């Protein structure tokens, strides 16, 4: 495990996606309510957004709320929605200053109206920013995303707009929430679990996956740098052999 290995500036992943997990357990270990873990987790979000931007990452996708997370107790869901709203309101000026563009993926129609309004305003106000794209996965599920894409494609086929032969990887990419974004190069999950939990099922096909036991509220610059250093040490073969990769 590279601990303090220097980061090579030329091999920064273009798109980093993070499953921010472990807030509740982290709080429990400190005899605090789960929401306290989520609150401190927002500070990690702010730190990692800044770090990613400084390193030259183009897209940072953060899994903030899954389609399955609606099953949590109402007070926790409400608390998370409140944190999201205040985060967006608080960060707008910093996003404008640091040229951060906010986008989101997921079924945002399910979010409470006041949260949706703030989200929509932040997306509009930051639309022209050209440094980091901060892409929030909200009420997001990879399966729901695929169902939505398949339904739209099926409608286009039955309307005669496209033929079934036109269905290829590109067409599917273009019907996902992530249309227009590069594929994730590095997918990080904090909090010690080793699963995808319905995140970017199609897009992560060739992402380098990095699991860490660090809980999200403690995942800060050094932990992020360690993940990137590990990514830089991996050989991405995309089905080829190592010799093929080395000979370019
Ligand atoms: C991740 O932390 C945040 C969300 C899923 C919203 P958890 O709340 O899942 O924390 P643990 O996994 O219970 O520790
Ligand atoms: C995944 O974490 C979702 C987010 C981080 C938003 P969960 O804590 O919900 O995942 P499971 O339920 O343990 O798989
Ligand atoms: Mg969890």
Brief sketch in words of this structure:
By secondary structure, the protein is α/β, with parallel strands linked by helices.
Average residue-wise pLDDT: 97
Structural class category: alpha/beta
Q: What level of helicity do the residues show? A: 40-55%
Main sheet makeup: 6 strands, parallel
Low-confidence stretches: none
Quaternary: single chain
* Distance from first to last alpha carbon: 27 Å
Radius of gyration: 19 Å
Helix and strand element order: EHHEHEHEHHEEHH
CATH topology: Undecaprenyl pyrophosphate synthetase
Bound molecules: 3-methylbut-3-enyl trihydrogen diphosphate, magnesium ion
**In total, how many domains does the architecture comprise?**
1
CATH architecture: 3-Layer(aba) Sandwich
Number of helices: 8
Sequence of strands across the biggest β-sheet: 3-4-2-1-5-6
CATH superfamily: Decaprenyl diphosphate synthase-like
As a percent range, the share of strand residues is: 5-15%
Rough outline: globular
